Amino acid sequence: MLYAILEISAESSERVEPLGSKPKFWFRFPRGERRWLFKYARSGTGEHWAEKISAEAANLLGVSHADVELCVIGDRHGSASPSFVPPGVDLIHGNEILAGRILGYNAHKKFRQSDHTFSRIVAAFYDIFEGPDRTEALTTLAGYLILDAMICNVDRHHENWGILRSAAAAKKPAMQTIAPTFDHASSLGRELRDEKRKTLLAAHRIGEYVSKGSGAIYWKKTDPKGENPLALCTRAANIHRSYFKPWIDRVKNIAPAELEVLVSDVPDDWMSPIAKQFAKAILLYTTEELRKL
């Protein structure tokens, strides 16, 4: 069954969202009810279908995620997500979390932020959460990294993860949990032109393409670039096996046909046949590599 297309009007816009590099705005749908965030797909990219397929992959994997719908406003294509932040709760982004714990951390430096390391994220979670909550949060984080590896997401920068924190009540501490994963537009080869996709497919170079992608989480502060998402999972799973094992087991239970359906359900006028073939090839390759862990 093809994914539905949500149609909205320009009059629905409430305010521009300042975070991130892509143009976006908040609106209410149905009118006056739940708040949604619309993101324009930049010309020549598949950011809209990458968001949708990635959300469906997260659902298949069982990872908590922001819902995504393909969306059109006038003649512009994009994607839209309903807010996952309940009333009375704040979304605290990763840059705020790390800046409050690491001396000299630059919360405004989004690209090539080598202070944004896996070990520092884990240390922050150890500081924030205790007991069973800590185990749950770190296991959830591992699920997000498995998803990143699965979809080849290279944009897990420090504003693309966070925690949900409620206000502290009298005699009670603030309630907090890791936020659902969100913003997966930089996935599945969304930046490539079809001619490049054809070349890579014909030369059986999907593995090469996947392994070359540099993510936004660094393994060490001294590394020249962020760690590849699949390589990050491999290294992290060797150290924190208990957090990653449940997700690797789930990957093993996903059938190739289920992955292909995630892509096939994008309407043909939103995603070219060669882009679909390429995205399917990525998913089949990465899940096979993750099964080896």
Q: Bin the strand percentage.
A: 15-25%
- Could you estimate the helical fraction of the residues in percent? 40-55%
Q: Compute the number of structural domains.
A: 2
Run of helices and strands? EEEEHEEEHHHEEHHHHHH
CATH topology name of the largest domain, in short, is Phosphatidylinositol 3-kinase Catalytic Subunit, Chain A, Domain 5
Q: Tell me what the CATH architecture of the largest domain is.
A: Orthogonal Bundle
Radius of gyration: 19 Å
Count of strand segments: 9
Which structural class do the helices and strands define?
alpha+beta
Largest sheet: 6 strands, mixed
Number of helices: 10
| Uncertain stretches of 5 or more adjacent residues | none
CATH class of the largest domain: Mainly Alpha
Oligomer: single chain
Q: In which order are the strands of the major sheet placed?
A: 1-5-6-4-3-2
The averaged pLDDT comes out at 93
Overall geometric form: globular
How many angstroms does the end-to-end distance come to? Answer: 33 Å
